[in-house]
Inverse folding.
């Protein structure tokens, strides 16, 4: 894990294994940084849920639990925002291929709501191909 500090910005860069234990580690690291920025317990919980969902997606859907593939995590805390980038080394996917979880045909399905929650809990959400292969999500939460 690398810690970088520049002015009022602090950044953590780390690489995690493709395991569900790594999901817990990613969530814990981000929640600690959210607390340092002054997010309250409810906001920190929502941020943690968003990180958990995206990290699970990286481990399960992106890397498919492969021991040979890693999850890349960057946490950047500035004076007024928390930015988290999570990347996998999988084959990538097109976000438009995900069915709308609010469609009447999908309302009773058990899966497919994770990214909807992520978008609801975070201020900015960007999903794009990761340089070098895979998928990367960038999440931002601004301090009100």
């Amino acid at each position: 894990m690398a810690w970088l500090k520049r002015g009022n910005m602090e950044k953590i860069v780390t690489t995690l294994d493709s395991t569900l234990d790594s999901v817990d580690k990613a969530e814990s690291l981000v929640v600690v940084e959210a607390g340092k920025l002054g997010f309250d317990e409810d906001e920190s919980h929502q941020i943690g849920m968003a990180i958990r969902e995206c990290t699970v997606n990286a481990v399960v859907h992106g890397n498919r639990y492969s021991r040979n593939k890693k999850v890349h995590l960057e946490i950047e805390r500035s004076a007024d925002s928390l930015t988290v980038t999570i990347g996998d080394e999988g084959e990538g996917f097109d976000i438009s291929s995900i069915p709308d979880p609010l469609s009447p045909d999908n309302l009773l399905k058990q899966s497919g709501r994770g990214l909807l929650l992520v978008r609801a809990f975070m201020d900015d959400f960007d999903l794009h191909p990761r340089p070098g292969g895979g998928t990367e999500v960038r999440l931002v939460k601004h301090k009100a």
